[in-house]
Write a structure and sequence with these properties.
- The protein is mostly helical.
- The chain has one domain.
- Helix content is 85%, strand content 0%.
- α1 runs antiparallel to α2.
- It is extended.
- The N and C termini lie far apart (41 Å).
- The mean pLDDT is 79.
- Keywords: Membrane, Transmembrane, Transmembrane helix.
Length: 60
């Protein structure tokens, strides 16, 4: 991906996420279609790591 197109891709992804709030089934389908499997795994790993950090901080 070219770096000059990065802001456009970010805005498109945020728009798809906002659409997922209104129509979850269609929005999630668009997000899945737009993301590569490598990016999807990265996002899932970040969510799991964030959850675990939050859980550890809550108990500490």
């Amino acid at each position: 991906m070219k770096l000059d197109r990065l802001p456009d891709a970010a805005v498109g992804t945020v728009g798809d996420a906002a659409g997922a709030v209104v129509d979850p089934r269609a929005g999630l389908g668009r997000i899945r279609a737009a993301m590569s499997s490598r990016a999807l795994i990265g996002v899932a790993a970040a969510l799991v790591a964030g959850y675990l950090v939050g859980r550890l901080r809550r108990h500490a």
